[in-house]
Specification:
Helix content: 25-40%
Number of domains: 1
Bound molecules: adenosine-5'-diphosphate, magnesium ion
CATH architecture: 3-Layer(aba) Sandwich
Strand content: 25-35%
Oligomer: single chain
Order of helices and strands: EEEHEEHEHHHEHEEE
Number of strands: 10
CATH superfamily: P-loop containing nucleotide triphosphate hydrolases
């Protein structure tokens, strides 16, 4: 039985133009991700990981090629429609957490709910559940600067899950954490994948993430160079 394809990238290319200089950050990437998969894309700094992740989540548009989420071609969407796809279908987790400093943990988790017009009472219930899920029920009213790095990343993961997105995209989620805290975050992403049946794509250079992946893809100079077996023996 093959599960549904949730995300596809076809011949993705991204050239950044800086004056007269062109940087080919992404040079023809094809990818097919199935519902519930945990995919890790490994590459050194500068290999095009963030560029790829931004294109997959509709934060940026490709120079060539296209991305489809549940069969919907993102290149055919207006900027407003693309913003709506990001809000409802994609959850982002970043290396530096990117939380709103003036909002509490709860406020950060509720922000995407309010943007999606979820009523206040429901948003409160949902943010409570999500902060419980990530182990922060005692920290709901703390602001980011009153939380450790690992706790901030947990808030970011709860926020990413707020609108029950189809896909969670994480850009070096352990890159700014010490070893033990990074391991906890990897464990949490794995639980989110296994228990919530959430599709997860992580780009990183943290080899430890390969241990929880269904599939590992290596990236170099804007291209995929190899695919390795992940934990389930899948390609
Ligand atoms: N906004 C940008 N403008 C110009 N060049 C960029 C921009 N973003 C990234 N690049 C270049 O594209 C390449 C890939 O960058 P990036 O996707 O950030 O790689 P990674 O996330 O793997 O470190 C690098 O050579 C980088 O310098
Ligand atoms: Mg990067």
């Amino acid at each position: 039985m093959s599960s549904a394809v949730i995300l596809e990238a076809e011949n993705l290319q991204r050239i950044y133009k800086m004056g007269s200089v062109e940087v080919g950050a992404l040079r023809g990437v094809d990818l097919e991700v199935h519902h519930g998969e945990f995919v890790v894309i490994l590459g050194v700094s500068g290999s095009g990981k963030s560029t790829l992740l931004h294109l997959l989540g509709g934060l940026d548009r490709p120079t060539e090629g296209r991305v489809l989420i549940e069969g919907e071609d993102l290149s055919e969407l207006s900027d407003n429609q693309l913003a709506d796809v990001r809000l409802r279908k994609v959850g982002f987790v970043f290396r530096f957490f990117n939380l709103m400093p003036q909002l509490t943990a709860r406020g950060n988790v509720e922000l995407p709910l309010f943007l999606a017009d979820v009523p206040a009472q429901e948003a409160k219930t949902r943010s409570t559940e999500l902060l419980d899920l990530v182990g922060l029920s005692e920290r709901r009213d703390h602001r980011p600067m009153e939380l450790s790095g690992g706790e901030q990343q947990r808030v970011a993961i709860a926020r990413a899950l707020a609108n029950q997105p189809k896909i969670v995209l994480a850009d070096e989620p352990t890159g700014n954490l010490d070893t033990a805290t990074g391991a906890d975050i990897i464990q949490l992403l794995r639980e989110v994948n296994e228990e919530q049946r959430q599709t997860v794509i992580v780009v990183c250079h943290d080899q430890r993430l390969t241990s929880v992946a269904d599939r590992v893809i290596e990236m170099r100079d804007g291209q995929f160079v190899s695919k390795r077996l992940g934990k389930g023996g899948k390609m």
